[in-house]
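Researcher: Sequence recovery benchmark, item below. Answer with residues only.
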């Protein structure tokens, strides 16, 4: 599966700073200092609907991670999946009378268009769950043969008790995990399971649903968590730098995935940092497909909203914060974009060397994009009121905003 084209990232003078990032597992801020190649895995979409602002906010956060690392002169090995077969996708296709593969392909294509418009840097490997199945089956067989998985009426479940580190990603108690498991795709009340929290690794073929050859597992399809594990281990190996996604993925998805990988390899941890973006609300409720309270990036673009303004709206909130999308948020972003463009359109102006370092410093501190925006705002205020004649300043500001914030002026 192919990703989307990459926009060029301008090189800035000097060198950026190592990233301090909040780690869900340790519940504190850690400094990441990867080697020459930084490794990151971000969980992708289940393509049964278009990209909404909540999606865009999450991918914007990890785009900032890439930009900070690029500014430190590192290379990046970025992997993202597409869950192109799963219950929500099949249910939506059945409801609307569409072929599930056509629905997945259409919505994935639209996602690519939205990411391109928002100037999100693409992953080096963009892998669908379906294409990963040949690599998933052997992992499930290994877990079963090692006693870390068991069969139940033809389905195969992972035993969470096989990983001594289970629970150390989300830091939740058993009751909270059980409630979230039921809410987020698990089946804690199924009779016969060894532990209510045990997640499915391989679902035996159901009538009317797609299935694949699973070797000794029989025909079926993979569980949600093992999909990402197979892709991450294949392309990144253990101990990669960041496992990322929305905060609703900390449990069960990232918790279960970490345990799968740790049981398979005997190594700990799967990722050095588990990084989670906050949720975006609309009209007082979390934006979600199940509630239908969505603002789509593609709809905003069709309405003539500049993608750079959408991106500035996302950047105006800290990536870990829960926040609400409103018309005022977008209007403020549109006005900010106009002021910034007016400021850099002048032939000369206020020196900007200090601004570059201010933006670098803000982003290195747990991706503090609002502080970075405030720094640019201060320069813009001075620029629009000044008659200084530094000919290099407007171009340097444009390159800084482009390189570090992904906003084209």
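Model:
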């Amino acid at each position: 599966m192919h990703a989307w084209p990459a926009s060029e990232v301008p090189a800035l003078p000097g060198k950026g700073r190592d990233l301090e990032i909040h780690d869900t597992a340790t519940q504190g801020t850690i400094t990441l200092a990867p080697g020459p190649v930084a490794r990151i895995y971000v969980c992708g979409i289940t393509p049964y609907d278009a990209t909404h602002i909540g999606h865009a906010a999450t991918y914007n956060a990890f785009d900032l991670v890439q930009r900070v690392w690029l500014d430190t002169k590192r290379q990046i090995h970025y992997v993202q999946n597409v869950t192109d077969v799963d219950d929500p996708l099949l249910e939506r296709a059945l409801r609307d009378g569409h072929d599930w593969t056509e629905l997945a392909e259409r919505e994935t294509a639209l996602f690519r268009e939205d990411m391109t418009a928002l100037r999100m840097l693409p992953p080096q490997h963009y892998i669908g769950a379906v294409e990963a199945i040949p690599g998933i089956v052997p992992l499930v067989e290994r877990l079963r043969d090692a006693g870390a998985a068991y069969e139940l009426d033809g389905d195969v479940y992972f035993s969470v008790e096989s990983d001594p580190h289970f629970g150390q990603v989300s830091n939740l108690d058993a009751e909270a995990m059980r409630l979230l498991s039921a809410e987020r795709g698990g089946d804690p009340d199924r009779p016969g399971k060894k532990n209510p929290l045990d997640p499915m690794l391989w679902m035996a073929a159901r009538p009317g649903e797609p299935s694949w050859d699973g070797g000794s597992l029989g025909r079926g399809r993979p569980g949600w968590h093992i999909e990402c594990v197979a892709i991450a281990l294949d392309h990144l190996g253990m101990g990669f730098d960041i496992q990322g996604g929305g905060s609703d993925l900390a449990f069960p998805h990232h918790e279960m995935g970490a345990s799968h990988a740790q049981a398979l390899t005997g190594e700990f941890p799967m990722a050095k940092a588990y990084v989670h973006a906050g949720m975006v609300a609309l009209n007082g409720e979390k934006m979600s497909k199940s509630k239908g309270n969505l603002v789509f990036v593609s709809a905003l673009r069709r309405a003539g909203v500049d993608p750079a303004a959408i991106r500035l709206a996302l950047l105006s909130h800290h990536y870990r914060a829960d926040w609400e999308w409103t018309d005022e948020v977008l209007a403020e972003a549109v006005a900010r974009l106009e002021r910034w463009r007016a400021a850099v359109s002048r032939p000369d102006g206020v020196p900007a060397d200090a601004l570059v370092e201010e933006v670098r410093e803000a982003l290195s501190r747990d991706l503090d994009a609002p502080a970075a925006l405030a720094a640019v705002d201060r320069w813009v205020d001075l620029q629009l009121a000044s008659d200084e004649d530094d000919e290099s300043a407007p171009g340097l500001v444009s390159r800084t905003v482009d390189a570090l914030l992904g906003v084209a002026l």
